[in-house]
């Protein structure tokens, strides 16, 4: 994508390059891009809306903030669609049966119309159990946390 082009990125993030030059460079890149991955609904070229958006960022000296703006927009659209982000971190990868059961349990906590977007990660330092991040809630069910808690209790009583 355009955002990952090292030449374009170096020009956009360079504070010594004038805004007009940045805008011209980005506009040229958009024209050369043809069908962009950001605008797959269009058959030829980049959409006018996308071009206007990028030009607005360029005019206001905010091209270096493009990734953050796109991420924020993605979060807004996800919320609009009723998607609830959930990340499960375990010591080892979950098998399909455990993952399906976990998905069923987590879906039970959602409101009607919400959709679970489940992502899994592994972190061997957890030793066992799991960390659950769902929406704005966090639950630490890891063996590591339990061991740390017991160690702290032992130190306090000694």
The profile of the biggest β sheet is: 4 strands, mixed
Number of helices: 6
| Number of beta-strand segments | 4
Listing every helix as H and every strand as E from the N terminus to the C terminus, the arrangement reads HHHHEHEEEH
- Would you tell me the overall average pLDDT? 85
Helix-strand category: alpha+beta
User: Numbering strands along the chain, what is their spatial order in the largest sheet?
Assistant: 2-1-3-4
Intertermini distance: 59 Å
Strand content: 15-25%
Shape type: elongated
Task: Please tell me the total number of domains.
Answer: 2
Q: Bin the helical content.
A: 40-55%
The gyration radius over C-alpha positions equals 23 Å
- Parts with pLDDT < 50 across at least 5 consecutive residues: 35-43
Subcellular location: Membrane
Protein name: Oligomycin sensitivity conferral protein
Pfam family, one: OSCP
Family: Belongs to the ATPase delta chain family.
């Amino acid at each position: 994508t355009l955002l990952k082009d090292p030449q374009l990125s170096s020009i956009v993030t360079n504070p010594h390059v004038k805004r007009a030059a940045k805008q011209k460079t980005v506009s040229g890149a958009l024209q050369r891009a043809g069908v962009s991955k950001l605008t797959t609904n269009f058959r030829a070229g980049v959409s006018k809306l996308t071009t206007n958006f990028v030009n607005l960022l360029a005019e206001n000296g905010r091209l270096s903030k493009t990734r953050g703006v796109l991420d924020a927009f993605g979060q807004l659209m996800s919320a609009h669609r009723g998607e609830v982000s959930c990340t499960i971190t375990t010591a080892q990868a979950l098998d399909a049966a455990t993952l399906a059961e976990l998905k069923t349990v987590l879906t039970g906590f959602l409101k009607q119309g919400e959709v679970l977007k489940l992502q899994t990660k592994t972190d061997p330092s957890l030793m066992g159990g799991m960390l659950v991040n769902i929406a704005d809630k966090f639950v630490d069910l890891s063996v590591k946390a339990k061991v740390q808690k017991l160690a702290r209790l032992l130190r306090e009583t000694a």
